[in-house]
Amino acid sequence: MNAGVIRALVGLHVRQVAADRASLFWLFGMPLMFTVLMGMMFGDMNAGPREAPELTVFDGSRGPAARGLIEALGGHEAFRVVVADSAGSWETARALVDAGSRTAALHIPAAFDADLAAGRTAALSLAYDPDRASAQTARTVLEEAVLRLEFLAAGRRAAAGFDEARFDALWRDPRITLEVRTLGRLGGEPQPSALAGFSSGFQHTGPSYTLMFVLMFMLMSVRDIVTERRNGTLRRLRLAAASPWLLAVGLFLGPVVVGLAQAAVLLGLNLLLPGMDYGDSPGALVLTMVLFTAVSSALALCVATFCRTPGQADGLGMTASMLLAALGGLWWPLEVVPGFMQKIALALPTGQAVTVFHNMIGRGWGLAGNAGHLAALAAMLAALLALAAARFRRLVD
Amino acid sequence: MLRVLVTKDIRRWWSDRQAVVVTLLLPLMLTAVLGISFGGFGGGAPEIEAIPLALVGDPPSLLRDPLDRALTESGLFAPVWCDSAEADRLVRTGEARAAVVLPADLQDLLSSERVAIGVWKDPGSVLQADIVEQILRRMLLRVQGGEAVYLAAWPADGFPAAGEPDPFGDLLEGDSLAAIWRRLRDRAPEVAAARAKLEAILDHQAALHDAFATSAVALTVVDRTGQEAKGVGPSTNMFDYILPGMGVFFLMFAAAAAAGDLHRERAGGTLRRLLVAPLGSTDLLVGKWLFAMLNGLLQLAVLFAAGKLLFRMNLGTDLLALPLAAVATSAMLASLFLPLALLTANEKQMGTISTGVTLFMALVGGNFINVDQMPPVLQAAGRFTPNYWANRTFNDIVVHGRGVGEILPRVAVLFGIAAVLLAVAVAIYRRRGGKAGLL
Predict the structure, then answer these.
(1) Beta strand A80-83 with B77-82: parallel, antiparallel or unpaired?
(2) In terms of domains, do B112 and B11 share one?
(3) Are A36 and A100 within one domain?
(4) Whole-angstrom distance, CA of residue B346 vs CA of residue B339
(5) Does A341 touch chain B (CB under 8 A)?
(6) Domain endpoint, select from A158, A182, A215
């Protein structure tokens, strides 16, 4: 094995990447942008208060019961309650939601308070957009408020001496309660994020987009290998390097070095984001990134052996990176997909790697806890290297 | 001459059939992955897997068996009874998404003591542990409300404090069953007091039951289709959301590739030959634009047809709305990357920048996540991306069933963007010396 040739090939690749400013943007700028924007979409990013979608209330009654109902709807992060100046009609409420300008609209008819006081069934109408999470929360909160009114009305009807103050006290401070806690290393911390087990949405998007862009950059570089083959550069390099295996090792290790540098910078910069960390095991972190980067490079080499034109390389590279990212749980947490999709994810390097990150961050697991996932990544690396070796001659001959 | 140029481009595009297949198949494959992940195959409301749930406690089988059966039959949970140490292990390893820890003494639930039901959540769970908590909270709210209304109506029926009369306690006092039997047989005063109390409680329960027979509030919940909503959750086939977004996303790549063809023709030497042909000053540019638009139209047609056949996707109620939106979107995207193709030096530079621009616009413009679900600052930013208007238009047609009349303003925006960007491309082309500048 001629180490000098390999060093030269690796150095050549690193210099090629560093010389291309657009590549640098792809290596670092784009992943950071995705991490931040997707992190913001996953939930609260400790970025201060933001304006929630509006639930408009058309209060035609303006009585104490209607006011109590409106008060019960207030104070939720998912939506904000705005009481319209005019009473408005049910049709107006529906039109607002239908137009998409309101997440939900509640119509309280003029007779609402009078009906309740007289023991008649009072009508109440909610128009909502079931495809918005904020509207679903608004509906749930409204149903709870209506349930309270049901209990209150039943109590009044059932007993002449019904004590409303006592009812309110018991409703607010019930005897039987839920005591909820999250186990694991983040259990004691507040959880404002949509990611229940995590304290920040970045704890999912940071590692996920680092993994995705390491993989994507390598797969998009397949085009360069195919172009070099078409130009005859690889054949000339082979003549210089004397052995196709040296060339293969060089083409494999060059992207690994660039990928590790990319991962180190991205994971380091991610630490500046609110609530971001990678658990308590630097060993597991380093080994995961080394294995994943090596798997990605081996995969890129394999893909290159299947492509004849740069167009095919672009298509296959983009297809592979998108599918591996989506199926492997880099776009969304694997827990939200059906069981068989979770099994598919764990058959992919992306699924294994992101699971290690989740285990490190959420559960505090290190090398021992993640041994199975790391072994799976190592096995994938071995299989891909074997495939690349079997097909490599097609690339250089 | 334009027809010749467009035909030539179509032939060149078709010559690399593998690339064509990838172009058409990739959006379908990703749509399938997204749709199956969130909506199941063939549409319908999203489903979730039965949540593995650990239950800690030792209730009598009289209580345990029906609870176990109810949880399993709900389809929401896969319950496992275990001790607290095992539950802790199951939750920490993610084998159970949550554990519900019942009070050690279940009688506490029926006493005057304050009782807490424990919920332990999996630290790696994003969604399911929260679902367990929410369902428990809703169930418990009814219990809490029932207790509050009963004790507010008949406070004397609550468990007596120390020193207060306690008819049931007096009857059951002592540790010998024989003593209780004797009291019952002898009709001791404690029996009459307990009976009177029991009768009062039964009367109150019956009164409360009757009181609940009439609803205080009739709540009608209507969704955007105007239908009465049943459960809480999305009402639409998930593919209706996902496929148009993916279609527009990959159309941006196709449009960038079509515009980047200028660089390929220059590198291959064919551009030089074309430019010596008797073309009008902007024929070449318009020809590329027309090819990109037709290419986009074909891609959208294949995608929507496959979406209808494979995923039972809704194509709207107005037959003209979808074709109109497809033409407007294709025209807009065909113009989008032409200025970039004229400003970049080579195909690689063009590819790098256009992919970056595409990914950014897709992220902010709502191709990955519904714009309505984004933080307001991103919603506002999304309006400045051209694809936002395409996504909105398709959403109006496919999800909300809107017709031509209702989508016209957004279609006008799309054609407006197309015209402006094409004009910008022509201006750049002329400023750079027309045909000579291309070389």
Answers:
(1) unpaired
(2) no
(3) no
(4) 13
(5) yes
(6) A158
